[in-house]
Amino acid sequence: MRVRQGNVRDWPFIYALGKIGIPESISPWRRQPMEVTLKYREEYLRGFWTWIEQSKSTVFIVEEPEQDEDSSARPIGYLVLHGSSQEELTGITQGWIMDIVVLPEWRGKGAGQVLLKAAEDYCREHEIPYLGLAVSSHNVKALRLYENFGFAEERKLLVKNVE
């Protein structure tokens, strides 16, 4: 697998894949029909590339291994890194992973690790001291990936249904 920096030509792939990972990412505490959630996500994604450009965020695309010299590599996942985010309590600049998604058939095969390494390398090269992300606590596979990659829990986001 190889990783490269993404560009606007990757947008159709990002847009389509960005909708696929939602069911695993939604907290069971959020009681809303999935079709409503997916409609919200679609609206969010419509403006995502504009936000990426305006915020000077970086997109990484991981591609499947090339089968032979004549075949073009197919994208299998992406990561969006906001490289100038500020931690909310200290104001320290950090890299923040806004979104990371891998095609379902490529999950558990190292694509996520390749993307995380690209984000980490970017932060080191740009002297960004921290790299953060948010993940739903029930998304055990993603949690395991991040913890194995060296991420540590820093804070907990709590929610209560008051209906």
TrEMBL record:
Gene3D superfamilies assigned: 3.40.630.30
Alphabetical list of InterPro entries matching this protein: Acyl_CoA_acyltransferase (IPR016181), GNAT_dom (IPR000182), YpeA/RimI_acetyltransf (IPR050680)
Domain of life of the organism encoding this protein: Bacteria
UniProt keyword list: Acyltransferase, Transferase
A Pfam family recorded for this sequence: Acetyltransf_1
Ranges where the N-acetyltransferase domain occurs: 1-163
Database matches in SUPFAM superfamilies: Acyl-CoA N-acyltransferases (Nat)
Protein name: GNAT family N-acetyltransferase
